[in-house]
Amino acid sequence: MQSQRDESISIALERLALTLGESGAVPVAELVRALERAAERLRTKSVADENPIDLVTQADASRAVGVSRQAVNQWVRNGVVRSYAGSGTSGRYGPMVSLAEIAIAANRRTRDVPFSNRRRRELVDFLGLIARSTAAPVAAEILRALEDDSYESRTPEKTRVLGEFVTASMGLGDQQREFTPEGLRLLSQLEPAITVDTDSPFGGFTDSLGLLIHSSGGEAGFDSPSTALLSMFGCATVGALYSGADAGIGRDIADAAQEVWGEDWVERLLDAVFHLGELRRSPLTRFTASLTYLDNNRFLRNAQAAGVSIAYSRGPGPLLPHRLYGGPIFRDMMSDAGRRTTPWGFSPASAQVGRPAELESGLNPFRVMNYEFGLLDPHVHGIRRYCFSTTDARRDLRAYVESLHGSERERYIGYAVDGLARTLHQQNIELAAIDSEQDFDWWKDHIIRSSEQEILLGLRDERARKVAHALLVSTSLLPEVVSAAHTDGALRDRLRIYVKNLEFDVIDARYRDDLRRGASRVIKGGGVAFDEAKATEVATTEIQAMLA
């Protein structure tokens, strides 16, 4: 009798799902994904009630995050954040709350306003000034994308490229690859949405800065309007510091930005890049190393909607000074040349280290933007979970320290402690470490950063890196990858499993599972505030342990 009842429940649930899909009440692709996630959670028991690791009283949360006690209380009452019965909680303090969840709720109240008419007009004015320079063709294309609501960058080829990436990753162990041969061919043949003549002054200059994507057909340029605008920001900052007549292009762009936005031109130009990216989304965008580091500001602002982003790193800049600042700035720091007035500034002597296209990615001078206007920028809201490989960081740290002598070694270690302490001092950063090499698996090695809306996949294979350093994938593209295999049922089922590895909720579940299993450890929780003394103490302990 009991088995018949269980069967009837199962049939009823099945009919409900079919009705929802067939009636169009829920899109079929979304329904399938939701059912798969539910099944996965039931199998793994990932929905079990587990208290977060950062439980505090509501009063402590309001003080740490900087909001009123009444606001926190209302969020709990209205269900905006959950409350928890922490161990030993007394009635005097009431239910506990997660500090990270309170920080997310607070930040949601200060999200960016839509692209206002005033901001649009300022961008149009800026592009108008650029139209007088050698960058005129690119400025015209950005303007067309801004004003043409029918502008479209979604192509079937982009779906196929991501599908080939996922298909190649289906292997086990050493058989996992980034791309099939067909995938590499498709990746290299993708034509940029905005083409640039590399023989032109602007094209040659941006190419030397490592800002252009190249296709096997000989075309060069950008895969989206926002990366084209971002390249102008790169020219106006790092690019303007180099010698040579072409560097004047960067200074002219900076002058145009200052004419429109005044002293706030850096923040306003980054603001324009963010809003243009929101307005004209690209489902798949190829990034050079320079663009990867420049885009962190836009990415984190884009992640604010959900309040959380997750990043994995093998060579963490917050612990390795030469990777935090890039080659030219770090050379100045080690040679007593002193820091420039701008975060990206370096001396003419250090400019001789080379232009970004000539340097390996770890020495790229745009790396400082990744942190100054991204991870460590307190004005970008949301909890940032940054997880690094201790094994790789220790290896790199020791190798660099052993290459130095005397005072240079002491100086480098001091910079390492300072960089890590500054990171720990940021309240919205959650810093975690994976101490065992085998726990930093294939997928973590490729996820540079991830949010609910998009994921940045780092490419490691040298053949793929000749085309792109990373792929920025909009999560809206993921269902299309599965649907594209409609002619092959077995492949579609396998794709569905592997595409899940790119969904934020699965990445988030794995991140939390690593913490629960002890595969990773939290050095500082998200939303937790370390004062300078505590941050320095923890940073010193971590760096010394890695050098021991």
UniProtKB/TrEMBL annotation:
Name of the protein: Helix-turn-helix domain-containing protein
Species the sequence originates in: Rhodococcus pseudokoreensis
